[in-house]
Write a structure and sequence with these properties.
The protein is α+β, with helices and mostly antiparallel strands. It is built from five helices and seven strands.
């Protein structure tokens, strides 16, 4: 499995899983943003008849739709959890120029848990994965991840191997 371009792997490190959030909880948001982007075309001729102000309104409306849709897509596509044979990396894209990267070796992980809450989460098989780190380090929590039980088992197995090697 290939690592994302923005992730720097260590020597001889192998990527086991690259996980993005399920698209299901974001469908409504993407539909509303697409409607926002297409809506000015329904008012195009009345707005263009208003002259300069109409052109400005149409242009700003379309540009804002493109900007909001691009931002939402980039936040979804660049927020991911990478599980390698040596560590777990949580890459969270919060905005165009704001990202938070948290990584933890398996010997630093105290507990891995997950929960699936609600009917949509159960139907579409996504949940929240919680990785508790030792000490005062910030815990890793990844929402809307596909098949969290499988990922929890994988991380627990890798964590057991890391503790056995100590």
């Amino acid at each position: 499995m290939d690592a994302p371009k923005f992730l720097r792997l260590k020597a001889e490190e192998e990527v086991l899983e690259v996980l993005r959030a399920s698209l299901a909880p974001y469908v409504l948001k993407f539909i509303l943003l697409i409607v926002w982007l297409l809506l000015p075309f329904f008012f195009l001729f009345p707005l263009l008849r208003e002259g300069t102000w109409g052109i400005v309104v149409v242009t700003l409306w379309i540009l804002s739709g493109i900007l909001l849709l691009t931002r939402a897509y980039l936040k979804w596509s660049r927020t991911l959890l990478v599980v390698t044979d040596r560590r777990v990396v949580d890459h969270e894209q919060k905005g165009f120029f704001h990202r938070v990267v948290t990584e933890a070796r398996y010997d630093q992980i105290d507990e891995v848990s997950y929960f699936v809450k609600g009917i949509p989460s159960t139907l579409f098989r996504y949940g929240t994965l919680h990785i508790q780190l030792e000490g005062s380090a910030a815990d890793i929590e990844v929402a809307h991840i596909k098949r969290p039980a499988r990922i929890s088992d994988l991380i627990n197995d890798l964590r057991s191997e890391a503790h056995a090697q100590k």
